[in-house]
Amino acid sequence: MKRSMQLLVTVIMIFSLVLAGCSNANNSKPSNANASSTGSGQASSTSGSEASGKVIDLKYWVPFSGSDGEFMEDMVKAFNESQSEIKVEFMNNNWDNYYPKLLSSLVAKSAPDVAVAHVSHLSELIPTGMIEPLDDLVADAKLDWSTYGKNQENSIIRDGKHVAIPLDTHAVVMYYNKKYLGDAGLLNEDGSIKMEPGAEGFTQMLKTLKEKLPADVSPLIIGSNNIFTYWIWYALVQQQGGTYFQDGKPTINTPEGKKAMELIQTWLKDGLTLPDIGDNSYDIFKTSKAAVTFTGVWATGNFEKEASLDFAAVPFPQLYDQPAAWGDSHTLIVPKQGNREKQVAAVKFANWLADHGAMWAKAGHVPSKPSVQDTEEYKALPYRSGYAAVMNDVKYMPDSTKLGAVNDAVLESLVEINYGNKSIEDGLKDAQNKADKLISR
Question: What's the whole-model pTM score?
């Protein structure tokens, strides 16, 4: 089906909005305020500030909308109330211009004391020379890198130095309707999906569902005209051992890329998933009009609000040679400010947030510290433990200052393929050519 370039431009515009995993796509209510302070911080300080008798004030920037912003604001309040050494001023910025604003503040040397940055955005912030390497600060802050997930720790190392503190992992995982799969005889006794391994086994499972489901229920629902197609394609390429960048150059038009897109096209052409689906994929699954969906962990809070929905959540399935999933992480960076006392305090604050990751997991995110997953507070949260292992499977996107532009180009071509405007071969070739031109500029 044909679609105008205007629609494709719209798709590209929403790419960065959804990339964060923090958009309003989860239908959570917007945050009430863009900037607010929490906590009193009136008690006298201790530790590094004891000699001066003053509280260390930190300005903290985040780009969170909806419930993410509310959960983080609650965490800042809890931190401020938990001790008297540091007072954090919470400022929630508009997502649309967050990174341009943060980048400008770094260049102008007017950045906050601590700020959220996605792993995928570190490559555009680090060249400012204003991100403080943390290895000389962690001893004073009593931060132990071994308490973080190894995959998450590796994601924030640049040139052998730690440049950020991981807060979470947010990834695309699989949700399934337990009633539909149970009625189709596709559940094991422990509630896991009964299917043969690999892409063929998964596709056959969908075909079985198609035979058993009501006519108005789709076996699978994915965002076929938006960023989820890219994320799924990326994961399937990684599962084959493929690359996205190699030696600093994009590798889009590859056998692995073609095979991944062929699988997605099979699901579409065989009627196993619906065409032309955008952000409404959330609601289609939530209202029991689909049996299986691939979407972000941030959808958990949305789905669990629907009392009639009996679902389970598990890591993105391994359909090829190795487990892999698309994912990103919120991290905290410490801008260079020339004030070591504040920088140590910022690291302490970031480490506290990670230690209390069960609070942040309410938003659906996977805590960056495996020990948090063993706490009673985390275990008491439904569904989260089911997909927590995805933190080990995430294949972080390559470190490139042109990453966002390349992603946009690939997304545009994949959507063209899904609309039938281009063949897989021509679509991937077009994406490769556009990506090569972007990198050469």
Answer: 0.88
